Amino acid sequence: MTVCHCGSCRKAQGHSCVAVVVDATLFKWTHGQKCIREFESTIGKKRAFCERCGTPLYSRRDDLPTVLRLRMGTVDTPTDATPVAHIYATDVPAWAALDDDIPRYSELEPSRM
């Protein structure tokens, strides 16, 4: 789980985005699939949202068809997962000061570069 501070995520979410990478082949929606809409935010990258309420749900890339970046704010099931990194931390605006000690990277974390 990472916290992304890039301008694209902030604009799409209204704030920094907390997301977890999930295997799309193992992920299953329990209901509401008919309400999911996707749009191509950049070439090859899709962002999904609920057509009824506008909630951002996930993003995915055409070149990584088995990977979803699930927006954790939409998960109702309790989890003990916590963020492991801030990515694009150099883009954090002054009003969103970071006050934790998890690693910060100017781009993606090194394991995803």
Brief description of this entry?
The protein has 1 helix and 7 strands; from the N terminus they run βαββββββ. It is mostly beta strands and 113 residues long.
Describe the structure.
There is one protein chain. With about 110 residues, the chain is mostly beta strands. The chain has a single domain (about 1-110), classed as Metal Binding Protein, Guanine Nucleotide Exchange Factor, Chain A, CATH 2.170.150. The chain is about 5% helix and about 35% strand. The chain is built from 1 helix and 7 strands. The chain has one helix spanning about 5-15; strands at about 1-5, 15-25, 35-40, 45-50, 55-60, 65-70, 85. A 7-stranded mixed beta sheet has the order 3-4-5-6-2-1-7. Strand 4 and strand 5 form a beta hairpin. The protein is globular, with a radius of gyration of 14 Å. The model has no long low-confidence stretch (mean pLDDT about 85).
